Amino acid sequence: MKKIDREFLLTDDSVNCYGYRLLTSGLQLDRFDPPIGFFMHEREQGVAVRWEDLTVRDNALYGKPVVDDSRFPDLVKQIEDGFYCLGTEKVDSKKHKK
User: Fold this and answer.
1) What is the pLDDT along the chain (98 residues), one digit of tens a residue?
2) Are 3 and 52 in contact (CB under 8 A)?
3) Can you state the percent helix, strand and coil of the chain, rounding each to 5?
4) What is the pTM of this model?
5) CA dihedral 68, 91, 84, 33 (to 10 degrees)
């Protein structure tokens, strides 16, 4: 595992490409322990990233990635080179409807 000292914007209050928004003020971060990420949201590939140092400011959530460098060595290089600069949150809205 390799922690990369680069802060990523994970989500903010804007409408996303799926047509909904995750309000930062309503995030229940304690329900995501540990917060993880899949490369391109592909669960089949396994966990690529664990997020640490989560910070909420200006209605946005930021975090620093810890990458599984044994399985995703190219991802480490791409992050360190600045190719990737943000992450995205995906919520299965079918599971979270009222």
Assistant:
1) 999 999 999 889 999 877 888 899 998 888 878 888 887 777 888 888 999 999 999 999 999 999 999 998 999 999 999 888 767 666 554 544 44
2) yes
3) 20, 30, 50
4) 0.80
5) -40
